[in-house]
Amino acid sequence: MSLQYWERCLVTLQEEFSSSQFNTWIRPLQAEIGSNGDLCLYAPNRFVLDWVTNKYQVRIKELLSEFAGDEPAPNLVLAVRQAGFSKPTPPPPPPPVQKAPEPTPRTTPAAEPKFESGYSPGFSLMDDDRDGPEIEFEAPLSLGDHYVRPEPEPYEQGQLPLTPPNRKVEVEGGINHGANLNNSFTFENFVEGKSNQLAHAAAQQVAENPGGAYNPLFIYGGVGLGKTHLMQAVGTELMRHNPNAKVVYLHSERFVADMVKALQLNAINDFKRYYRSVDALLIDDIQFFAGKDRTQEEFFHTFNALLEGGQQMILTCDRYPKEIQGLEDRLKSRFGWGLTVAIEPPELETRVAILMRKAEESGVKLSYDSAFFIAQKIRSNVRELEGALKRVIANSHFTGRSITPDFVRESLKDLLALQDKLVNIDNIQRIVAEYYKIKISDLLSKRRSRSVARPRQVAMSLAKELTNHSLPEIGDAFGGRDHTTALHAIRKIKELQDTDSDIREDYKQLMRILTT
Ligand SMILES: Nc1ncnc2c1ncn2[C@@H]1O[C@H](COP(=O)(O)OP(=O)(O)OP(=O)(O)O)[C@@H](O)[C@H]1O
Fold first, then answer.
1. pLDDT confidence of 172, banded at 50, 70, 90?
2. What is the number of the ligand 1 atom nearest to the C-alpha of 192?
3. Mean pLDDT, to the nearest integer, of 132-157?
4. Which residue among 183, 228, 234, 357 has the greatest number of ligand 1 atoms within 8 angstroms of its CB, and so is best to mutate?
5. Can you list the domains of the chain with their CATH numbers?
6. What span, in angstroms and rounded, lies between the C-alpha atoms of 78 and 53?
7. Residue 216: cis peptide before it, omega within 30 degrees of 0
8. In this predicted complex, what is the ipTM?
């Protein structure tokens, strides 16, 4: 048997699943035909294996039987890819001078910092209590730690403003020493829902087993959906297990700025040493690496060294790695070596649950009806949701009135008016027409061909979901149709979202365009 059945399965599964499901669970499976003709699918790690076994195995078997027709279907074997198994792209060894020492086996994230060969600092990165001249390098400066460079170099006028020697770095409020982590981002206060379930589960796995099979963990999704929160929750958890763990969180722009500064100061080796000495490196919004070739080059080597040393990396991005324009292919492929998971905008129930939780955390009583009202109106992302809730709470404190749906409506009046102005039937029609490359007049016409009818139904559904117009008003706005046509359109699109991955993706994209 050749792999053709599996290749056909892939085509079907890609149609049936959302792109994030397919990219996360199916794409990483490596297929082989076993010596006895079994179809062996190798998952990169246990997590993916369990997920695929529980959720997709039955469907894969069904498809295999379907494609085999009258022939016996191949036996399916699911397993974790073993070390030594023909890995698609094993990390190349870093250049000798940057080679990290042999990784020490570890059960906790508290491994000793790893230093380049020949460099013997004789102190911990976290150790403030030492003699000798110090300079604070840009990265440690933000992290609250600093280290001694054996031969401090003189500062020259005009050089970038390094912190003067011996100045103790202040740790910002709410920021964990040495990690730049925000204590308020924890697993406990992260509300799980369908939209973030995979990312949440993966992050918890990493917190339990750093440097394990899910390295790097790559979390992608739109703005304000909780990527930073989850990434930092892992960092906080690692530090909770071991307060000496060197967990470093930073925004990708900071990495770029540090590197530029290090190059200007001729301190690139310090830069390399610093970033390679951590136990866990958490970099946010790596889409900012796009087009920055020198940064990518440096990050590529850091990435390899960390992976080789078994140090955990977590990266976030606003899109799927392969879709980042201006990012080298070798980085794109490396980002997929661990686990790539998506976070989607939260659905209504999750939005309500988040609001109730945030209100509770603020010690405020929020009724379900009021939470529901806000969640129905604010759909774009969690940050916006939090902003709206803060406004309502502040207003309630200020006026001494209790929070009811009417009070919420009043408090958010300006915001909702602005939103209504931004999302109305006219611009839904304009954006849907642009998206499907048809004319607005087609949406309003009597034409019933699929190429026009489907976008029209999508636009009507969006109008129902995003505006306060009634069904008769929506029908009327689409070429004078009646409310039963609008109702049919909405039901049809709801049904298609469960069965047709193209429609599901289109709808999601359009929602994103209209609400962000
Ligand atoms: N599921 C959730 N439960 C609780 N709070 C959440 C959840 N998702 C997001 N938040 C909160 O929403 C706010 C925005 O989240 P976060 O900063 O993690 O978004 P992001 O995806 O990293 O966005 P950006 O790409 O803009 O950086 C934070 O205050 C975070 O705590």
1. very low
2. 1
3. 30
4. 228
5. 4-80 (3.30.300.180), 194-343 (3.40.50.300), 348-421 (1.10.8.60), 423-515 (1.10.1750.10)
6. 7
7. yes
8. 0.98
